[in-house]
Amino acid sequence: MPTVSSDAVPTIAWFISPHGFGHAARACAVIEALHIRRPEIGFHLYTSVPAWFFRDSLAADFIHHPLVTDVGMVQRTPFKEDLPATLDRLARFYPCDERRVDDLARQVSTLNCRLLVCDIAPLGIAVGRRAGLATLLLENFTWDWVYAGYRDYEEALQPFCRYLGELFASADYHLQTRPVCRPAHAAVTTGPISRRPRIDSVTLRRRLNIPAAARMVVVTLGGTSGLFSFSGFAAAGRDLYFVVPGAAETTNSRDRVILLATHSSFFHPDLIHAADAVIGKAGYSTLAEVYAAGVPFGYVKRAGFRESAILEDFVAAHMPSLEISEEMLASGPDAGSLEQLLALPRVRRKTANGADAAAAFICRLLEKKI
Questions:
Q1: Whole-prediction pTM value?
Q2: Residues with Cβ < 8 Å from 361, sequence gap 6 or more?
Q3: What's the CATH number where 333 sits?
């Protein structure tokens, strides 16, 4: 097994899947926790997630390397995948291009990276192996496991499942974060990983011009909401304000519905922690941030995506929650369901953020105590 390099000033290469912003949000949470423990660590982030997302999320120093690191799933809508388009992209991306792997391996070696972390872009593992770097896989699911769930495309997906499964299994270290889809015997497991809020709810609501006595509901779809109309939300109670991140090209407000730009000045965890309830797709980063805040979660199921059932079971078991239909989300929630959601009690979490345990594990790697 490759050892972690002993260079005096440590840097870490982080290969991040661009499938939504969830993997980038999880990476940022761990990087920030590492920065608190070891502020001298530098980070090289390889991903096609835009650099502004990391600038908005990180106090740590980093260099952004624009790179398509992963295929993931092609989405028709926030809730539906496009399997034929996904297969086409998989065929063009895998197996990993050897010249690209060589070039990236030389680059991370030149940058004196001491460790390579992969969330869950398998290209990073191939690069780490080629460079002789220790590799850490951070995940709550892997793509081979997700692809294996599409039985109608089983024959076409099987070669990719086999190739990616072998690549993921070759990582030197394995860290899983709850809710875990396929527990691995040798993996270290943490609680949900989420970014921390920065400002208090009073300040946040003041910035949004929401009255102190009003109730605030955040509607989040992971930054993709083009197929939804939010005019129906205005018919809700007069003391209700709805905040929708990533719903407009420019931030605007009308009829107590505040549509925020994809890249707005509002930090997503601040919005979640200031809310009286959150309505959204049950994706990992949304789940983790709502879990940390302890606010009621009106979650929308994603039929067909294999991870969804695991996440939804976790929500139902560990979070104040209510299932919301996709149709109701598109047209605006009915008053009864909305009041039922808002009546659920907020939970005060006593458990630690999984980012702290992940950072502690990585620090032990860097200190050669594992």
A1: 0.93
A2: 175, 188, 190, 370
A3: 3.40.50.2000
